[in-house]
Amino acid sequence: MNGGYTNPPPEKRQYRDPYADWWDKQERRNFGEPVHEDHDILGMFSPYEYTHFTARKGFFLMGCFVATVLGLCGVVRVYYPDRPSVQRAFDGGLDKELGGPGALLASSEERP
Question: Considering only Cβ atoms within 10 Å of each terminal Cβ, which end of the chain, N or C, has fewer?
Fold first, then answer.
């Protein structure tokens, strides 16, 4: 032991009855009750231990979520149109309009 200190059994405070008549209601502890040497891990202000789901059920629910999102993405991909309109076609292309080889230059190279 630690210099004659009686170390109580390790019990997380969140598992104690919250409606019992505790001297310290927030920490769920009575006056004079010995504190475990790992109180920082077992106290009420330590990270909350999640006990609502088992790991198996949690992974199942996460898998269902991923499958639903990927299924929705697949449905959107199948039904979403590729282009909102038909591509325009120009006779002879747009070489002249976009400054191609036959375009009229804005300034000539010969300046006075």
Answer: C
